[in-house]
Amino acid sequence: MTLRIPSFLLALSLMLAAASTRAAEAPDDLLQYIDLKPSFVLNVQSPGGKMRFAKVDASVKVLTRSAAALVEQHMPYIRNIMVMLLTATPADQLRSVEGREAVRKEALKRVQAFFKKEENRPVVDDLLFTSFVVQ
Question: Fewest beta carbons within 10 Å, which of 45, 47, 64, 106?
């Protein structure tokens, strides 16, 4: 009995050591979605001059751990890009599927342009709206 317990502990410690070695050797590749939190709650202009409200949730897709770290580091600037774009877009455009897709593509383009300027690479692979409400 006393021989079984040390053998079990030895086997367990070897398995844990092997698992930590594999984790340390893991490549930088990592598909990850990062939420742009908190939600964007904005005033948007409608054609008649009436103020409308929009609540938007968005996420960005990155492919590496280093890209995820850069997104977290530059989150205030990314959020600024989103706020400026969304508030400059007419409410009618934000209410249509085609309009939202155009805004999504423009937001991605602007975020990637920022990272190309700052980091010499686009960093963000895609930008997605996960919730979009205009009232």
Answer: 47
Query: Cα(46)–Cα(92) distance, rounded to whole angstroms?
Result: 7
* Within a domain: 71: yes
Tell me, what CATH number does 83's domain have? 3.30.479
Opening angle at CA 130, ends 36 and 34, nearest 5: 35
Q: At what angle do helices 75-88 and 97-119 cross, to 10 degrees?
A: 140
Picking from 134, 114, 135, the residue whose alpha carbon sits closest to that of residue 123 is 114
Dist CA 67 CA 63 (whole Å): 7
Residue 18 within any structural domain of the chain: no
Q: pLDDT tens digit string along 57-114?
A: 999 999 999 999 999 999 999 999 999 999 999 999 999 999 999 999 999 999 999 9
Residue 99 lies in domain: 28-134
